[in-house]
Write a structure and sequence with these properties.
mainly beta; Immunoglobulin-like; Maltoporin, Chain A; 2 domains; 22-stranded antiparallel β-barrel; five-stranded mixed sheet; 5 helices
């Protein structure tokens, strides 16, 4: 009944006090989008009207049309891969139809993007009051990215410990459980219902348009999990021009330079194949693709076989109503071990590892979204989806180390956007998440999360945008006496100054409800045992930030900079801790209070139209503020020590040298050495205290044969970890060694 009442209120708010505009108050915007220098048309370019759900793609002649829209002024945003993102004011007040020719300038270094993740609506990243980073599909292809997590390591302020994503130090080492980053695909959450973790191989990398990363607490719009930020995977749209893509790659790993690490005379290899088709026929559009990957790994007993399928169907019911349906399926059969035998045998599992064990993981996604634009420009979005995960190993079911878990996460949401006044936009909605878990290691559990949210954006002064909002979440797991209510506010301000710099400031609250796995895990694995703790309460964060960015023209050289100062305060952080009654038993507890202060500086430039440079430096001071007296259990004194499993410095650099049809690129990643780990690990893992800074160089050579011949081929030679630098990815685990790969992609 409560849900029905809230839904009724939403509908009343949507239509109350609104004017139904007459048909003669409608108009059409049409035009062409072309290259500024060559005047050639740009098929597949996108034009969107900011603050509305209206938009269009150009056809093979570079033409677009947006019909039956209210006659008023619109801020349009025009984008095309490899070109500048352009903002253009279009005034439809005087005429019922308008034809515009839009010229875009080609650029190699992108300084602006269009995003939807910051405020659940389309807008220029320059108008967002919080730090964001965007990775486009072109960069994924060039780097031979196989899984999404490989792309994230190049994003400023982001690092990974295996599958654990950390944005500005929000996460450390948590055994892969409980992501502190909300992870979505086209706005639909994709974290598992049992462990609350991210399954990166469930994402169809071959069909991604871009990856948007919001840095800082985002629970005001996205709820649980958005403690450190939000990652939203945006998939491609079906194209008016039929497109067939084929991509194949293969590579080898370098042999270890230390003889004691060499476990085989064979050179390990990896290879894969992706194929896809996209077309739009009138109102009906479709994308289908599939991929295969085999990886023998650089480590012993670490082989994997993966395959995936993806389909996206879009149907335009009318000019103002559309429906999207997405389906994905991913299969992974793999070997695995948690930590090495010792540093002297760093590529070999412990002698106690059962080499007959293989693990199988499947991921299924089915989601649908309906969108309707009302005559006054308001719009409503209904979305619902299922993310189903299944994991098991091949051990007998009566074995102490047999693990099996099936989890279904069903997410449903209604979102409404009203333009109440000319300069006021209101977004609000309801969200329900149902996590159903059946597992021999967690038990049978059902977790419900119900939430309502709202956000207002006010542009009451020229070039000044005020954003304010909040969300209320209710969370409960069946069988528990307690439940949780969380209130997450946010406030932001962005200002485009008349003298050039764009300023922003924001603060917000984030939280993460404990997962079923963290509360109820009871298992043994590779010498460890995990015991349950149903008393866990949600983690909480507060994020504060001020920032500035600007695009400077220095002679014929453009330079873009972005500087932000941030502080993140965390409390009740859930961390794995060794139980004092046992040397190998791990229990999850709310044991940590922390403060992370830092500064992030990003610079992009193209020198002499021949040398592209990107550099991003993030310096953090992650301090553990835990005080013994406030804890219910005895713990070691850690007050004001460096927070465990965090690097203080993240420094990412990129160099691009284009030669017409040939392009050379270098990527450099540096992370300072982790200063503090759990000292008790040395009792279980040999040489667990061995660690060094991360200092990795990647290189690639890209040959676009389509610029030389009629062959629609792009050939890329990749060298990852070119200098074969050895470092620890997580405790007792050597990171990937040097590997070379050749990738060939064809598109018709």
């Amino acid at each position: 009944m409560a849900v029905n009442k809230l839904l009724y209120i939403l509908i009343v708010l949507l239509f109350s006090g609104r004017t139904i505009f007459a048909e003669n108050d409608r108009g059409t915007i049409a035009g062409r989008i072309i290259d500024q220098n060559t005047k050639s048309v740009l098929p597949g370019a996108t034009i969107r009207l900011e603050g509305t759900a209206y938009g269009s793609l150009t056809n093979k002649n570079g033409e677009f049309q947006i019909k039956n829209i209210r006659r008023m002024k619109y801020n349009s945003i025009i984008t095309y891969v490899g070109y500048e993102t352009k903002k253009l004011l279009i005034d439809l007040n005087k005429d019922d139809s308008l034809y515009v020719t839009i010229e875009l300038h080609e650029e190699i270094i992108h300084t602006s993007e269009v995003v939807v993740s910051a405020n659940k609506r389309l807008q220029s990243v320059q108008d967002v009051p919080i730090s964001m980073s965007v990775v486009v599909s072109k960069e994924l292809d060039e780097r031979n990215i196989i899984h999404v997590d490989e792309a994230l390591i190049y994003i400023p302020g982001v690092n990974l410990v295996r599958d654990q994503v950390s944005i500005r130090g929000s996460s450390g080492f948590a055994l892969g459980l409980g992501s502190r980053v909300a992870f979505l695909m086209d706005g639909m959450p994709l974290v598992s219902g049992d462990q609350g973790d991210i399954k990166f191989d469930a994402i169809p990398i071959f069909n991604l348009d871009r990856i948007e990363v919001v840095k800082g607490a985002g629970s005001a719009l996205y709820g649980t999990g958005a403690l450190g930020g939000v990652i939203n995977i945006i998939t491609k749209e079906p194209k008016d021009i039929p497109e067939i893509r084929l991509q194949t790659y293969g590579g080898i790993y370098a042999k270890p330079k230390y003889g004691q690490w060499n476990y085989s005379d064979k050179t390990s290899s990896f290879e894969g194949l992706n194929a896809g088709y996209s077309e739009k026929l009138g109102p009906f559009g479709i994308i289908v693709s599939g991929g295969l990957n085999k990886d023998e790994s650089y480590r012993d007993f670490d082989e994997s076989h993966k395959w995936n399928l993806f389909s996206k169907i879009k149907y335009d019911i009318s000019e103002r109503s559309t429906v999207n349906v997405i389906g994905t399926y991913a299969y992974d059969n793999f070997e695995n071990w948690v930590y090495w035998n010792s540093l002297d045998s760093a590529l070999i599992p412990p002698s106690t590892a059962d080499r007959n064990v293989r693990n199988t993981s499947t991921k299924l996604t089915v989601s649908g979204e309906g969108r309707h634009i009302f005559k006054n420009g308001d719009f409503i979005i209904l979305r619902s989806g299922l993310f189903s995960t299944d994991f098991h190993n091949n051990l007998p079911t009566d074995s102490a180390e047999y693990h099996s878990s099936q989890a279904n996460s069903i997410n449903s949401e209604i979102q409404v956007s009203n333009k109440i006044f000319e300069n006021t936009l209101l977004t609000y909605g309801l969200n329900h998440v149902l996590n159903s878990v059946s597992a021999n290691i967690y038990g049978n559990k059902i977790q419900n999360i119900l939430a309502g949210y709202f956000q207002g954006e006010l542009s009451f002064i020229n070039n000044l945008i005020l954003t304010a909002g909040a969300r209320i979440d209710y969370e409960k797991i069946n069988g528990e006496d307690s439940n949780n209510f969380e209130f997450s506010p946010k406030l932001g301000l962005s200002f485009t100054s008349p003298w050039g710099p764009i300023f922003r400031t924001s603060f917000g609250r984030g939280f993460r409800a404990a997962t079923v796995a963290e509360k109820y895990a009871s298992l043994k694995y590779n010498g460890f045992s995990v015991i349950p703790n149903p008393e866990l309460i949600p983690e909480v964060s507060w994020s504060y930030e001020v920032g500035v960015n600007q695009l400077l023209n220095i002679g014929k050289t453009q330079l873009f900079y972005d500087i932000s100062i941030f502080q993140n305060d965390f409390s009740n952080l859930i961390e794995p801790k060794f139980d004092l009654s046992s040397t190998s038993a791990i229990i999850f507890n709310n044991i940590t209070k922390a403060r992370i202060q830092g500064i992030e500086i990003n610079v992009k430039t193209m020198l002499f139209n021949a040398l592209g440079i990107e550099s991003a430096l993030t310096y953090m001071d992650p301090v553990d503020k835990t005080i013994n007296d406030s804890m219910k259990i005895p713990i070691d004194t850690t007050f004001n020590k460096t927070l465990k499993y965090r690097s203080k410095i993240l420094w990412y650099n990129r160099l691009i040298i284009p030669f017409d049809f040939l392009e050379f690129q270098l990527d450099h990643r540096y992370m300072s050495m982790i200063e503090n780990i759990d000292d008790r690990l040395i009792l279980l893992i040999k040489d667990s205290d061995k660690r060094v800074p991360v200092n990795v160089l990647d290189a690639r050579l890209i040959l676009e044969l389509s610029k030389l011949t009629d062959m629609p081929l792009t050939v890329t030679l990749n060298a990852k970890n070119l200098l074969n630098y050895y470092y620890i990815e997580m405790v007792g685990n050597l990171a990937p060694v040097r590997n070379f790969s050749l990738q060939v992609e064809a598109m018709w």
